[in-house]
Design a protein that fits this description.
0% strand
């Protein structure tokens, strides 16, 4: 029993931030910029002139002014300008990475620009969601970017109070900000999995083949909404496959449910985040191919904060260098 408790404590001790370099964080920052830029609709559109079921900020503020195209476009341009400033601020900080915090006078640009961008993004999505048909496709993205912006603000405030580094000297503020982003993304997936279990329990796995019926209904609704002949048989291959392979459907959807519920393990270390990030990306790819349900912005954020390609390359290069040093040290004189 003592060994079990000791092992559990050792595992729980893994749940803390790990080192992240300024270069890695610049990569993450640019992915955040790309995600917000991709979110901005390229076509001209107007918001809604009514809010029959207000949600979020719409409960306190009248957002029907977005019914005018020009005003919505002004908000979107605020997003675009703000994220460009956020990107340039990141490049500036990367160029000055070897200087002390006192020698980087423009650090306030990061929290200000990102807060403006995410606030405008939330305004637009709140107006869209207040008509009675809530769209959750951008929820995880909004939450992640908002937390990153608030973390930037917290770092700025701590700097003004004289705390230039985290209490753990091995870490940087970039490590804490990226870890908080991982926390938010993990929470989004865990909540999705737990909600399924809470509503339907294990019957969700048992009744998984019924997804074919739901997809057939969705296909018909999409067709009659747009009268697009291409939508008529878009999901037919997947529906037929589920009908022929009910047990494999249970395995696939059940595995996705388990993956969502265990997403919190990404907080246990860089390797856990990498493995779970690859699994999450594979899950989204499979769902996109089969059900035509795509979450590209979520995937980009997982790629940035969980998989972290620059960190992966750095670890590989470090391990390669250590391996060469070991072989050189062990060779006879």
């Amino acid at each position: 029993m003592k060994s079990l408790v000791s092992s559990l404590r050792g595992f729980l001790a893994r749940f803390h931030p790990w080192p992240v370099s300024v270069t890695e964080f610049l990569f993450m920052r640019l992915i955040v910029v790309y995600v917000l830029w991709e979110w901005c609709p390229s076509t001209t559109f107007a918001g809604y002139a009514e809010q029959p079921l207000p949600t979020g900020l719409a409960r306190f503020f009248d957002l029907t002014w977005m019914a005018e195209v020009s005003k919505v476009q002004a908000v979107l341009w605020c997003v675009r300008v703000s994220i460009v400033v956020y990107a340039l601020a990141g490049v500036w900080q990367w160029c000055l990475r070897r200087r002390s915090a006192e020698d980087r006078p423009l650090d306030w640009l990061s929290p200000l620009s990102l807060l403006v961008a995410v606030f405008c993004q939330i305004l637009v999505q709140t107006n869209r969601n207040s008509i009675g048909a809530t769209h959750h496709g951008y929820l995880a993205m909004s939450q992640t970017v908002l937390v990153v912006a608030l973390c930037h603000l917290g770092v700025l405030i701590k700097g003004l109070r004289g705390q230039r580094r985290p209490k753990d000297e091995r870490l940087s503020w970039e490590a804490w900000i990226s870890y908080m982003a991982i926390v938010v993304l993990a929470a989004a997936y865990v909540i999705a999995g737990v909600t399924k279990l809470h509503k339907e329990g294990l019957t969700w796995i048992r009744d998984a083949p019924q997804v074919a019926t739901h997809m057939a209904r969705t296909q018909e609704e999409t067709y009659y909404d747009h009268l697009d002949p291409a939508a008529k048989g878009q999901l037919e291959p997947f529906i037929q496959w589920v009908a022929r392979h009910p047990h494999l459907t249970r395995v696939g959807l059940g595995g996705a449910l388990v993956l969502e519920a265990l997403a919190f393990l990404a907080l246990a270390g860089r390797r856990w985040a990498l493995v779970l990030g690859i699994c999450i990306e594979a899950m989204h790819f499979a769902i996109g191919v089969s059900m035509k349900l795509f979450f590209p912005l979520n995937q980009w954020l997982v790629f940035a904060f969980w998989i972290n390609a620059p960190g992966l390359i750095r670890d590989w290069w470090t391990a390669r260098a250590q391996s060469r040093t070991g072989r050189a040290g062990g060779s006879p004189a």
